[in-house]
Amino acid sequence: MARPELQSGEFGLIAKYFAPLAKDPGAFGLKDDAAILPKRPGYDLVVTKDAIVEGVHYLASDPLDTVAQKLLRVNVSDLAAKGAMPAGYLLMTAFAKHTQEKSVALFARGLARDQAVYGLSLWGGDTVATPGPPSFSCTMMGWVKAGRMLRRSGARPGDETWVTGTIGDSGEGLALLRAGAAANDPKTRALIKAYRIPNPPAAFGALLPGLASAAMDVSDGLIQDAGHMAAASGVALSLDFASIPLSLALLSRNRSGKDARLKACAAGDDYQILFAAAPKMAKAILAAAAHTKTRVTRIGAISKGRGVTVLSPSGEPIALSKRGYTHF
Amino acid sequence: MARPELQSGEFGLIAKYFAPLAKDPGAFGLKDDAAILPKRPGYDLVVTKDAIVEGVHYLASDPLDTVAQKLLRVNVSDLAAKGAMPAGYLLMTAFAKHTQEKSVALFARGLARDQAVYGLSLWGGDTVATPGPPSFSCTMMGWVKAGRMLRRSGARPGDETWVTGTIGDSGEGLALLRAGAAANDPKTRALIKAYRIPNPPAAFGALLPGLASAAMDVSDGLIQDAGHMAAASGVALSLDFASIPLSLALLSRNRSGKDARLKACAAGDDYQILFAAAPKMAKAILAAAAHTKTRVTRIGAISKGRGVTVLSPSGEPIALSKRGYTHF
């Protein structure tokens, strides 16, 4: 395939933009066919893999440094929800025919920025060409104390349900971008940023083992993902509709909190942690949240049964027309 | 994105076609956000990542079970060249809008077949949609005794250069497919098979630590890849043109061995192992090859200096117009 726009070619791009991101000795400066994974006595290496595709998981108009950050952060989100501390990643980049080399450079700058934020190293990967839209896949690994990885399946009747951060901001940011909104006020900027550069609670997640009984990341909509936890744990989750945490930016764009929450429940890309914990853990959870400057909200209860029920302040079930977001 | 062809949706596809491939306890049946990597005392876990894109690394007309096999085998090839035994992998599938569910089922059957061939387990992954052509990325891991991973950089003056299998078959198979050749004779079928389902010498590769001083897989053309080894090792490689191993199938399609070798040197996708070894290792190398029913050929010598020289039987350098194949 002729690639006049990417004059450096595959090996040149790797040497110029990606090798400088691979400082760990086991990565061999990306000059070999493979890397050696690090070992850490007393820890498990937890692995996850998430991919993003232009037009599906991000918009063609999103700057490529933020695309790189989103790629890393959707994976950091999975690790944080498992109680794991990010360590390193492998990267597949499929740049499009029209991709310019300066875009590759911008993408690499986004990677460098978030490697510093999360303490990540690049351990390897593959750089390929595609006749289609650009896409990127990341395999990320992180450390958790041996045997302490949080599962989706550990929630027990009597536990409380919690969520980090606020819900729905990213979905609203996507709606604003699709509508062509200009980011000329702080609230609009905050919502667009929530879509482009999600902010998974990595430091808080690393403190959750020992506190939470189950955890998962919220990426496909709060209610749908709560359903996954209920199914994996074999329990029933009830969520207090009014307690679902919203940002002031999101509230300001809706006629009522109810309207905002209905939309938020069906939006995707929150990259927060939904977790269950015994009531006696509440104090320690709030301390961990304060220590890591993370907002946490108790949003419901867990009982015997199955499925997710959303309850109004008066305790009546609320029927939701849309329970999640599908990227597929 | 509306996906009428893939009625099961993302979660349904994973449950139906991919979860049955994930039997290791650390994969949690693909029902969690992440997996826990296995540990093996005294061994390193070696990791590689290779992706394939329709129209770049395989043809739209290639059956999807062979595409799945090619995806796994290009990664097995990297591990084999490092002396590592395949253990498990994570998989990103980006199916196109027009992909039918029966194609996903066929792809999964190809994975199952090669999981059995190489002793692999599926450890996790991501299933996304793409508006472009299908693409697949694999992160594969394998075991090698601690500290024994073969590098590209270990070749020393005085070593001999070897290669496994035959060179150029895959390139000829690709040319036949592009010309619309019918696979109605065994030689044509063998060449097409070499392109669609490469056969990396996994068992032989696992015996190479302790025998070889350097190794890498041949995927971008023998001469170009030999250049990578020469550069990484800081040595000069001379290759005996006439000793480059060719299959009878390839020879039968060319006027002369010379014509066939010139083409073979510039073809890609061989997925054989190029390695360097001290002359005293020759006997053990031939024994390992016999034990694993692997063809190996001594194709050159290593000396002080840099770069790759291809020598005629009379010892004259041969100028090659094309030294490799680019997928980019």
Notes on the protein architecture:
2 copies of one chain form a homodimer. By secondary structure, chain A is an alpha+beta fold. Helix content of chain A is 34%, strand content 24%. In chain A, the strands form 2 sheets. Chain A has a 6-stranded mixed sheet with strand order 7-9-6-10-8-11. Chain A has a 4-stranded mixed sheet with strand order 2-5-3-4. In chain A, helix 3 links the parallel strand 3 and strand 4. In chain A, helix 4 packs across helix 5. The radius of gyration of chain A is 20 Å and the shape is globular. The model of chain A has no long low-confidence stretch (mean pLDDT 94). Strand 1 of chain A pairs antiparallel with strand 2 of chain B, so a sheet runs across the interface.
